[in-house]
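Input record, target 12 of the design panel.
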């Protein structure tokens, strides 16, 4: 086989699994930009592989992606230490099929991604491979450079950690969208009581401006505080503002435009028809993938 034929063959396989590899990297990193860099690094290593010696090309690609993501995750941990204010995952405007896949939508939701941020790099990678993508222990061990026995212990510890912190209730997309629509109407009308009606008593508001845009430097908890923050901010605003519904990380969310320019992407978590989490990303560096929808897959 000529070198050109080998590259064509490698390219065909890589493209076929690209959405999967991006999803793996994104769930491990919480950053689309870093996930794209990992995919580039994966590609450069993949074209050097003798494909005739690879029994399972999909598994091999996931292994390369995992190793690159783990290296990147350790570097990102140091970057986050100096980040100004809360660090939120980079939001994605996702395709409708992501919202329809309950397992996938939950795994990429902002609420769950924030829980993954509390794991160590190795724990996060092991958890994502085992619990989200159902990769076997032997393959996970090969990807992270551990023994299968060690991986089982790490997976158990990570699963227990995540289960203790992840949101318990998962509502239908229809009910979540209804709650977000009520929230949207209240925002547009500056309706303080309307906001209080749709917010859970213990709602958490988090904003990510990255030190570039104004945002709360710590989470704000409680319906009254959050509603007054939102209503007060809108009351002081003198620039034309437009809200729009969006599917953000597989769930109901919205976008905010100021004077015609995208200012924020908002992910919302809903439980029992009330909003329990509002995650507002304003950092321009994290809004680079909002011009189009991002396809994600578990397969």
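The sequence produced for target 12 reads:
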């Amino acid at each position: 086989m000529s070198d050109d034929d080998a590259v064509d063959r490698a390219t065909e396989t890589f493209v076929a699994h690209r959405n999967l590899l991006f999803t793996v990297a994104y769930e491990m990193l919480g950053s689309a930009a870093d996930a794209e860099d990992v995919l580039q690094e994966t590609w450069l290593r993949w074209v050097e592989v003798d494909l005739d010696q690879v029994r399972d090309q999909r598994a091999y690609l996931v292994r390369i992606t995992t190793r690159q993501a783990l290296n990147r995750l350790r570097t990102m941990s140091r970057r986050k230490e100096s980040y100004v204010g809360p660090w939120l995952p980079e939001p994605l405007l996702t395709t409708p099929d992501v919202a329809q896949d309950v397992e996938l939508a939950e795994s990429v939701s902002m609420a769950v991604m924030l829980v993954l941020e509390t794991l160590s790099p190795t724990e996060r990678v092991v958890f994502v491979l085992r619990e989200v993508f159902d990769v076997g222990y032997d393959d996970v061990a090969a990807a992270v450079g551990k023994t299968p026995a060690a991986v089982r212990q790490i997976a158990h510890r990570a699963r227990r950690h995540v289960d203790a912190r992840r949101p318990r209730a998962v509502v239908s997309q229809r009910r979540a969208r209804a709650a977000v629509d009520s929230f949207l109407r209240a925002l547009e009308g500056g309706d303080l009581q309307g906001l209080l009606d749709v917010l859970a008593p213990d709602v958490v508001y988090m904003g990510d401006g990255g030190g570039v845009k104004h945002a709360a430097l710590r989470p704000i908890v409680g319906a009254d505080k959050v509603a007054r923050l939102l209503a007060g901010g809108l009351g002081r605003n003198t620039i034309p503002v437009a809200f729009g519904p969006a599917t953000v990380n597989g769930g109901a969310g919205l976008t905010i435009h100021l004077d015609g320019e995208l200012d924020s992407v908002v992910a919302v978590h809903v439980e029992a028809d009330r909003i329990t989490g509002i995650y507002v990303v304003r950092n321009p560096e994290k809004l680079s993938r909002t011009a189009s929808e991002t396809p994600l897959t578990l397969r």
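Residues 112 and 166 are 6 Å apart (CA to CA).
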